[in-house]
């Protein structure tokens, strides 16, 4: 792993979301939504590491946080409509939750150090 565990976790999560969506047939409108939010988490975290200022860093991390909440919504919908099995849901929700908790901690630290 690289020095930034959050980047690694979010990349791994993005890969899991892409692979999950590849297995789902006939639900392209829904899979497009979760693909966008699930991969946006990592993209915004990656972009935050090249922020122009602390405020820009915080903004990008907050966007990633919002995307994680949206992704959790789509995961829950997918599970409740039997698009994915409960076991897959639990794994992805746990991974997303881990990223969310680190994001919250990082945002709070950045705000406190401002």
Keywords:
114 residues; mainly alpha; 0% strand; de novo design (two linked rop proteins)
Give me a quick take on this structure:
This protein has 114 residues and is an all-alpha fold. It has helices at residues 5-23, 28-48, 54-80, 86-112.
Can you walk me through this structure?
The chain is mainly alpha-helical and 114 residues long. It is 82% helix and 0% strand. Helix 2 packs antiparallel against helix 3 (54-80).
Gross CATH architecture: Up-down Bundle
Structural class: mainly alpha
Mean of all residue-level pLDDT scores: 94
Sheet of most strands: none
* Total of helices: 4
Q: What share of residues are in beta strands?
A: under 5%
Question: How many domains is the backbone divided into?
Answer: 1
CATH topology: de novo design (two linked rop proteins)
CATH class: Mainly Alpha
Fraction of residues in helix: over 70%
Rg over CA atoms, rounded to whole Å, is 14 Å
The CATH superfamily is known as 23S rRNA-intervening sequence
* Spans where pLDDT lies below 50 across 5 or more residues: none
Shape: elongated
Number of extended strands:
0
Distance between the termini: 28 Å
Helix/strand order, N-terminal first: HHHH
């Amino acid at each position: 792993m690289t020095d930034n565990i959050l980047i690694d976790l979010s990349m791994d999560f993005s890969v899991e979301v892409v692979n999950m969506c590849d297995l789902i047939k006939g639900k392209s409108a829904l899979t497009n939504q979760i693909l966008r939010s699930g991969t946006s988490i990592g993209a915004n975290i990656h972009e935050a590491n090249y922020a122009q200022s602390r405020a820009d860093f915080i903004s990008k991390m907050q966007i990633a946080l919002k995307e994680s909440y949206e992704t959790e919504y789509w995961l829950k919908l997918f599970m409740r409509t039997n698009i994915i099995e409960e076991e897959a849901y639990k794994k992805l929700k746990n991974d997303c939750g881990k990223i969310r908790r680190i994001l919250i901690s990082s945002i709070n630290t950045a705000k406190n150090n401002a």
